[in-house]
Write a structure and sequence with these properties.
The chain is mainly β. The chain has no helices and 34 strands. The two termini are about 40 Å apart.
Length: about 400
């Protein structure tokens, strides 16, 4: 069901603390920064550009008087003004994660739905037109829950969806799942990678050979309850979903890989949150680079003296990498600032930006989406004490400076 949403956007000035290898001049005007009340966004591919330069942003609408959720699509003009909000879903828990642009002003939306489909929770893929009308939609699931964490467009116009699937045997947790569709949304592949514990995928990228680079988490259950923790799971598959190589990475504490990209030369880069032993196991933003055969090329940690974590990673046209995530304040673990860094191909910092919000709220960036014109769209979620969650959208130029509007 499609329905008009009643959410209201706010265009607010968001403070930005910056440090960089290049100084740059201060811009005049108000930084483009939109907060959408009652919505949240945690997708890794959550923004698409329309033919006229407007933006479509996907997220989840959280109703204040019920547990119901909807997949939400928000259209903003080039300066951040709301053009329309649309909700998609039924009377259960539905959510959105990613959007990709197709030809002829059409888009694919991905998420999860408890309102329709064969299972209690199902993968969800929709194709919509320029007005937000549904051209087709499909649900993907089995008996138990399927939750979609990310989508990537395939060369033939189909989609790759990754997430988690609840195992049929009770109390055995979830397994990492890969679903592949054709251009009409018909399922062509459904692979579940079984292991003991709770496992799942958080991002996916397409390799030059048509295979997949997938990252997520693998829960480890040791003989001692104190040894139980989640580990990073990094996997490369062929087009049929068969594993070519797989890496389980851990440091003795809970960690997870949440962003992945395939570089132009075939290398695979991964963004993660993982403990940093020299800082007493406090988490750090971690970036790893593997060659196409799975050999680790470098492994770097970023962030200050506080906890930090990476949520998404993308290669830019010049070979640099843009990583989005958050850094947390020691004075309050609920307080966080969005943290964006740009590094070169060797992992050296080119620039970094921190976006705090007033106490006691917290802000996390879940995605940094580069566009052909050099701009970078940042999306994330602001957690407020009194008003719930807000979806956050802001624009940066290629040097990481906020783009301003008159």
């Amino acid at each position: 069901m499609r329905r008009l949403s009643l959410l209201l956007p706010l265009i607010l000035l968001l403070s930005c603390n910056t440090s960089s290898t290049d100084s740059g001049d201060d811009d005049s005007g108000t930084p483009f920064s939109a907060f959408i009340w009652g919505a949240s966004g945690s997708g890794r591919h959550p923004v698409a550009v329309t033919d006229n330069g407007d933006y479509l942003v996907i997220g989840t609408h959280q109703f204040t008087d019920t547990d119901m959720r909807d997949l939400q699509l928000i259209k903003l003009d080039h300066v951040g003004n709301l053009e329309w909000n649309l909700d998609f879903g039924g009377d259960q828990f539905d959510s959105g994660c990613d959007i990709v642009a197709l030809s002829n002003s059409t888009w694919l939306l991905a998420g999860s739905s408890s309102s329709a489909g064969p299972g209690s929770r199902n993968g969800w893929l929709m194709k919509i037109d320029h007005a937000g009308d549904v051209i087709w939609e499909n649900h993907y699931g089995r008996i138990n829950d399927t939750n979609i964490g990310a989508m990537e467009l395939l060369p033939d116009g189909g989609a790759a969806l990754v997430g988690s699937y609840a195992t049929i045997v009770a109390d055995l947790g979830t397994d990492l799942q890969l679903i592949k569709t054709d251009g009409e949304g018909t399922e062509t592949l459904n692979r579940v990678y079984e292991s003991i514990g709770n496992d799942g995928a958080l991002d996916v990228a397409i390799t030059a050979a048509g295979g997949f680079a997938i990252v997520g988490y693998n829960e480890y259950d040791g003989p001692d309850p104190d040894d139980n923790f989640s580990r990073m799971w990094i996997m490369k598959t062929d087009a049929a979903g068969d594993s070519l190589w797989s890496r389980i990475v851990h440091r003795g504490e809970t960690c997870f890989a949440s962003g992945v990209d395939v570089c132009a030369n075939g290398d695979i880069v991964v963004a993660a949150e993982t403990p940093y032993i020299p800082m007493g196991y406090e988490s750090r933003m971690r970036v790893m680079r593997y060659d196409s055969g799975g050999t680790l090329l470098w492994d770097r940690f970023y962030g200050g003296v506080e906890r930090a974590g990476g949520r998404s990673i993308r290669e830019l046209p010049n070979g640099n990498l843009i990583i989005a995530g958050g850094t947390w304040f020691a004075s309050s673990r609920s307080r966080s600032a969005a943290y964006i860094i740009c590094v070169n191909a060797a992992g050296d910092i080119v620039w970094e930006r921190s976006f705090p919000v007033p106490a006691p709220d917290g802000l996390i960036a879940y995605a940094a989406v580069p566009f052909a014109n050099g701009e970078i769209m940042i999306t994330g979620t602001r957690n407020t004490v009194n008003y719930g969650q807000q979806l956050w959208v802001t624009r940066l130029n290629a040097q990481g400076e906020p783009i301003t509007i008159d």
